[in-house]
Amino acid sequence: MPEIKVAKHAGFCFGVKKAIEIAEEVAQNNKEKTYVYGQLVHNEQVIKKLEGKGIIFVESINKIPENAVTVLRAHGEPGTTYKLLEEKSITKGKNLNDATCPLVTLVHNVAIKLKNNGYEVILFGKRNHPEAIGTSYHLKGSSTFVVENPEDYESVIEHLNKNNFEKAAIISQTTMSVHGYKKLIDSLNSKLNGSKFVEIPLSMKDMTRKYGYVDTICNPTKQRQSDTEELAEECDVVIVIGGKNSSNSKELYAKCRELGVESYFIQSEEQLQKEWLGGKEKIGVTAGASTPDYLIKEVVEKIREMTKLAIPLQKTPRFQD
Ligand code: SF4
């Protein structure tokens, strides 16, 4: 009889949870409309629920009225966002509630410190992702060199050779693949003749190396990736739940595919298909950091229903009876 195994770390990370709590609390205590700039989290279902609580999501600051109570998402904003909001009398301590995750702020601080110590800072991330845009603001803005895939390491070498920087360092968006980051660094080092990229610890005490990299992928992302790897190794099929725009959820799906396990990326239980589950002995379920618990539970219930399981779920701290 098939067994369902849910990843120990799956779904909301603390940064996303906090951002949602802030938005809900602000909306509850605010008699006027509450605005959120951008997708608070990359999950369509969560956004719909919050809209139902009277929160208005806008993709342009132009759509936020003067003086409006506003919440900023977890991904971290460029300084220009704060300036534009200030022009509308929306400021911190008054009507601006900043839900930027502290681990994103940490990346900003690392970027600033490297830059101030003479490093050309290269970002391993998704060019159009709000977090990458926010981090780039602290570097060279839209001219910041961003590398999206480890396979593009040659473009980094070209950038280094062309500009002959005295020092260069690589940092990562918090939600990138741990293996992808390692692959990028290893590929670069295998091609470089002189200095190699060596890790600069987060304490950032030694800033003398010519080439360095800082491990800025956040722990919740790492936990979700390693738990997903475990699932991929022991399950016959893995269902990954996440929003279409969720970078970390897509990374989990990519990881499953890379490891060769049959896997499917869905947004909700409605997309599950019975034929995916037929004949499977162990079914794994995982979810990105922007997927709420209730969606995971719904998917698990649907799998049980579809496979007519008579056995209980494998217990994890998140799904105990
Ligand atoms: S994925 Fe990491 S950086 Fe992003 S909100 Fe969650 S904990 Fe913070």
Throw out a few tags for this protein.
321 residues; alpha/beta; Cobalt-precorrin-4 Transmethylase, domain 1; Rossmann fold; 3 domains; five-stranded parallel sheet; four-stranded parallel sheet; 11 helices; binds iron/sulfur cluster
Report on this model:
This protein has 321 residues and is of the alpha/beta class. The chain folds into three domains: 97 residues, 4-hydroxy-3-methylbut-2-enyl diphosphate reductase, catalytic domain (Cobalt-precorrin-4 Transmethylase, domain 1); 85 residues, Rossmann fold, CATH 3.40.50.11270; 111 residues, 4-hydroxy-3-methylbut-2-enyl diphosphate reductase, catalytic domain (Cobalt-precorrin-4 Transmethylase, domain 1, 3-Layer(aba) Sandwich), CATH 3.40.1010.20. 40% of the residues lie in helices and 17% in strands. The protein has eleven helices and 13 strands. A five-stranded parallel β-sheet has the order 7-6-8-10-9, sandwiched between helices. The chain has a four-stranded parallel β-sheet with strand order 1-13-11-12, sandwiched between helices. A four-stranded parallel β-sheet has the order 3-2-4-5. Strand 2, helix 2 and strand 3 form a beta-alpha-beta unit. Helix 6 packs across helix 7 and helix 8 packs parallel to helix 9. The longest helix is centred in the N-terminal third of the chain and has 16 residues. It is flat and about 65 Å long. The two termini are 21 Å apart. The relative contact order is 0.16. The site of iron/sulfur cluster has 15 residues, from helix 1, helix 4 and helix 8.
